[in-house]
């Protein structure tokens, strides 16, 4: 076994077997949400770290994955784990469509295009809402929502946390596999110079679309997991501004490793919950996030994860 696999496997085991035993029912749900949004942040990191591309529509894609999962959960008898996979693949296709502007744009212009896409999804979510067991294609009922089916053998919130951690861990492994195989090598060449990559025979168009599709896959799986965790989704949770926030936290956490994605999920969900628990307005978290982003931009381009890993690897003199 490679030594680089040992830390993530230890972390996965601690989360899988330790957290459900020590957390209260409320904090199990909070940590579950944090793990789900860590997965969404990993999708942002794929694009930003590997290709230098900015995607501000990741939260919107999480909403798309959640919508698809809810519709299939209420409208079919498919196993829940299969619904998660379908939601991921369908959202990956939408993510690939979002890649089309990236073939011609970078930087601020691409960020604006993805932000406009997030705004369009926000309008659609508000107009059509999320399925709750109603009739028709949209599946929206005026009365109280029907109960959603849970994954097989998941009987409690603690069990669902374990289920979520396993899926998130597998998805992190998929990202790591991409980074050390042909896609990762192609992305590295494209980031350095698209012209040189094309001269070396790299299909730039294909690999850019692949990166957006992988990012969309992670968002779709996150949305499907979130729909089961909450039982119902609200359009107000998928505002375009939330996509900006998650992108900023992915940069603060560190876009170049799985640790950064975990930190982003913690900051996005766990920190506001902690502030509320201490009687402090969760809006204070935005001030903290802003200061952390300035710190990351000015002194820590590899984010909190980069600083932590640099400290651990530094040999004493």
UniProtKB/TrEMBL annotation:
One of its GO terms (cellular component) is plasma membrane. Its main location: membrane. This is Branched-chain amino acid ABC transporter permease. The chain crosses the membrane at residues 56-74, 80-100, 107-128, 160-177, 198-224, 244-268, 280-298. PANTHER family: ABC TRANSPORTER PERMEASE PROTEIN, HIGH-AFFINITY BRANCHED-CHAIN AMINO ACID TRANSPORT SYSTEM PERMEASE. It is a multi-pass membrane protein. It is found in: Cell membrane. It comes from the Bacteria. Keywords: Cell membrane, Membrane, Plasmid, Transmembrane, Transmembrane helix. GO terms for molecular function: branched-chain amino acid transmembrane transporter activity. Coiled coil: none annotated. InterPro entries: ABC_transp_permease (IPR001851), LivM-like (IPR043428). The keyword Cell membrane applies. The keyword Cell membrane applies. It comes from Yoonia rhodophyticola. Pfam families: BPD_transp_2.
